[in-house]
Amino acid sequence: MKTTIQKMLDAKNLDDLLTVLLSLPEELTAREEQTLTHLPTFGGRAGPGDTTDVWSWDATRLLIGNTRGNARFSIIPRHTFHEVVIKKSSGGFGEYEVGDLGDAYADESDLEKMMRDELGGAMYELGVDELPEGIEDIRGRIHHQPARVFVAIFHPEGDYVYFGIVRS
Questions:
Q1: Res 4: pLDDT
Q2: What CA–CA distance (Å, rounded) separates 65 from 53?
Q3: What are phi and psi of 108, to 5 degrees?
Q4: What average pLDDT does this structure show over 41-70?
Q5: Residue 84 — φ and ψ, nearest 5°?
Q6: What does the pLDDT look like over 9-30, one tens digit per residue?
Q7: Do residues 18 and 73 touch, judged by C-beta distance below 8 A?
Q8: Residue ranges per domain, the chain?
Q9: Which end of the chain is less crowded, N or C, counting CB atoms within 10 A of the terminal residue's CB?
């Protein structure tokens, strides 16, 4: 019969490894804790720069968790999507820049739906939708331009804001 450590090291994929980790007792032995630092990985580039609580990965997902107290592990998407506000660049010259990252979403369509729901005004994707009169297509003038750029227009004032979706 295989030991828990052998099962961890023999896992064929991230899902198998998660199953073994979830079967660990609440209190790990010193050998089990040491084995956690040498778990197999299953393809894709190395884990993120900060690997705190990242135990393994495959091409599209990360196995995360902690061993403090009651060990808990889960699999999350490797990439997340964030909303960013796009504002005029402080350098001027008709250029724009991206602001700080908003909350993380695992699914791009969920983020887009949230943006549409929260904005309450008309929302247009640059390069996809026909823009209303007076709204510029600013793509190509945005430093670190997101793959998708939108504009929201708030009626009746006519105020508008540019924003985008970035993948991290």
A1: 80
A2: 5
A3: -60, -40
A4: 75
A5: -130, 140
A6: 899 999 999 998 888 777 777 7
A7: yes
A8: 4-77, 81-167
A9: N
